[in-house]
Amino acid sequence: MNQSLIHYGIVISNSVDKKAFIHHVLSKKCIGALGIFNAYDGVLFSDLAIAEFIEKEHRHHTIEITTSENRPLRTFSSGERRKLFLEYCLAQNPDYIIFDNPFDHLDQQSRIELHHQLFKLSHSISILQLSHQKENLLSFIKHRGSVSESSFVVSEINKLIEPQIIKYKSDFPSSLVSFKETYETLIKFHQISVNYEEQTIVKNISWEVNHGEFWQLIGPNGSGKSTLLSLITGDNPKAFGQDITIFDRKKGSGESVWDIKRKIGYFSTHLTELFKRNHTVEQMVLSGFFDSIGLYVKPSGLQQQKALQWLDVIEMRHLKSNYFNRLSLGQQRLVLIVRALIKQPPLLILDEPFEGLDIENTALVSQLINSLVENSEITIIYVSHTVEKTLAPSHIYELIPTQDGSIGQLKLEG
Ligand SMILES: Nc1ncnc2c1ncn2[C@@H]1O[C@H](COP(=O)(O)OP(=O)(O)OP(=O)(O)O)[C@@H](O)[C@H]1O
């Protein structure tokens, strides 16, 4: 495609079936402005492509991209995965690459570096960028458009009607599960370290999270944010033998992982990476009551009612019987966020809740979080690489990488 390099930036909202649109482009069925891509072979760089790759490695017990490290892509942090996957895409020597929200999961420095890298790349390869937000379109891409929901035709961006930020008036549904116990110290880490073989990931972390606090956890890619969260949720055996107090109880004093999970609502963009079952949207929301991913027990009528009320909040009741797997990634993430908070747990953990959301859904999730902060006693920890102007965490904990693993510091104390 060298002689006719063309770059396109396309704004795509969560209501467009992005999977189908991408398939449409890659299978050379574009009409109109994007028709030029029909003559060429492209590859996809996206969260979905990465998730499928991880699934493939898992299924075949192989390691393809990260052979030098001898561990599967799944064990790398979100930002690391993206960098490694880009190398993999380039190695295939495609005519063009579809970059679906390329800046997601990246810290500020990595965003700047990727912007430079893509600019250089644009001299040798065509780029089709998809972005949920107009502000994230690459500055050097001159052709810009938005894609229509039904025909996938691209129209000029200046003809676009700006999306309206919906103010959600409906009150959020009340809680069904009542947690009678209150906890003073939800999390207390004392001098916690985590190593993988000879590499130290975090070192001597002492961090305390108390009742009703609203925390943001920050740090560059690979600094250990998700690792810390996995120590809390009971998903990391590295917690064993360390001085960790969770819900006022010393870890290792007889509590089961399920005791802990019962009190936590958890969302991560990786939650459904290997999830292949045909569960409906409603079942997925309901599973939040049972701390499972997907529904394996019969819910009560009241629980079903509650799930529908929550689907109303995210305006997805009409999709309740659709298969979760068929939703767009943005819709799946909204469903999983609601799944995390349906039981209104004492502790809510949101690992990158804004990734993959368009401007309207970002506003909705911000409003959901703010409403919980104002109207409940839930303690919240969220991870985000970007500053959400509408959120005002009362505390910020920062991981700072050093040669011997990340150290932690309190950046903002409420
Ligand atoms: N099983 C493992 N073996 C070796 N290293 C691992 C393993 N799991 C995680 N790591 C490494 O631990 C480091 C911290 O990962 P983690 O996912 O906690 O980072 P993060 O701060 O959440 O990053 P990001 O912002 O990119 O999501 C990464 O360098 C990752 O590669």
From TrEMBL:
Full protein name: ATP-binding cassette domain-containing protein
Keyword vocabulary terms for this entry: ATP-binding, Nucleotide-binding, Transport
PROSITE patterns reported for this sequence: ABC_TRANSPORTER_1 (PS00211), ABC_TRANSPORTER_2 (PS50893)
GO molecular function, one term: ATP binding
Annotated ranges, domain ABC transporter: 187-412
Species, as recorded: Gelidibacter pelagius
Phylogenetic lineage: Bacteria, Pseudomonadati, Bacteroidota, Flavobacteriia, Flavobacteriales
SUPFAM superfamilies noted in UniProt: P-loop containing nucleoside triphosphate hydrolases
InterPro entries: AAA+_ATPase, ABC_transporter-like_ATP-bd, ABC_transporter-like_CS, Metal_Ion_Import_ABC, P-loop_NTPase
Similarity annotation: Belongs to the ABC transporter superfamily.
Superkingdom as given in the UniProt entry: Bacteria
Keyword Transport: yes
